[in-house]
Amino acid sequence: MSGHSKFANIKHKKEKNDAAKGKIFTILGREIAVAVKEGGPDPANNSRLRDVIAKAKSNNMPNDTIERGIKKAAGSVDSVNYEYITYEGYGPCGTAIIVDALTDNKNRTAANVRNAFTKGKGNVGTTGCVSFMFDKKGQIIIEKEGCKMDADDLMMLSLDAGAEDFSEEDDSYEIFTDPLSFSEVCEALEKEGIAMADAQVTMIPQTYVKLTDEQDIANIEKTLNLLEEDDDVQQVYHNWEMDD
Is 12's pLDDT higher than 50? Predict the structure, then answer.
């Protein structure tokens, strides 16, 4: 799975999102609320909540904010009316795009997602039309500069905790796990004090599409930007090979 370092893209997204950290925390707060509603407030017995907590920590959400979110959700379970919806579609040159949304109004979200694809000259497809091109994996990215542990030791720690794959890139380490082992690997790294630049269960493309036409690049950027700006959109996955 190596050869496609995502660290530069993640740094770019983190920098862009620093100005909108409140929005990120709102999105994560929704995910916490839904996870608590589905499986209860105890992370030990709720794997979805464990995964959301790991994702929240990698986005620098303070522990007390996470705890408050869990307690608030546990006390108002009946008022949580968000639901997950996934959209799949195509961008320029057959690029595959998957959109995970968490919404309290499916009609509004569907219209906004369709509009984002249309403005980028793409189109929304049917369920399953592109998801077969991706593998669902836990992905943890660690910045080399901030990691004091030797690469071999980090690899062994990760594999011993249940990771499937470990790769070393120019400026980062990438760890891949089965979705069920994701939270255990995150906990093992956290116990050793290793900071994670990004940690989430994600969709990894099996192959990537490189775009060379400037208009195609502008179109897919338009679609992705519109999707990322939408409050209902939690995550966007695609197989466009972005330049680092």
Answer: no
